[in-house]
Amino acid sequence: MGGSSSRGRQRKLLSTEKRENSNADDKKKSMHRDIERQRRQEMSTLYASLRTLLPLEYIKGKRAISDHMNGAVSYVKDLQKRIDGLNAKRDELKKASDNWSGFEQGMTSNEAFPSSAVVRQSLDGVEVVISTSVGPKALTLSRVLQLLLEEGLDVVNCITTRIDGGLIHTIQTEVY
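^ BHLH domain-containing protein, sequence as received from the core. Prediction below:
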């Protein structure tokens, strides 16, 4: 008889352990579901944020997240091409200005102020900083603004500062 009561206790212990294991498994599953739900919500928020940053032409008519991701990749590649093109134009302008600036006879110190251009990528577009001389052969701000508009850049801010007989134009642009 002593053997049957110990078997009953063993069964009770085993069923108690199974219930405890089952409860622990349920807690793990519940925690895993909660973590996965939170991850999906965060990804959804990030995708929505990405959609707001992309121009309409890159997401127009597309509903799938993979299409938006491909649109973002295309947009970044297009921006990089435009930046490379602007850097090439800057280098051309630099070479052209180096060929004639400061080397002609009879120029005053103001006219000999070296011209240079620096183009930097910014969060919204491109920042262009141009230093130039003052005079008839100087690169004019209107010409620079015209070139930027031709390249598809929208000027949002322009600051001009006079330094040492020359001008420094800081132009902030956005892609439109």
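The longest helix spans residues 2-53.
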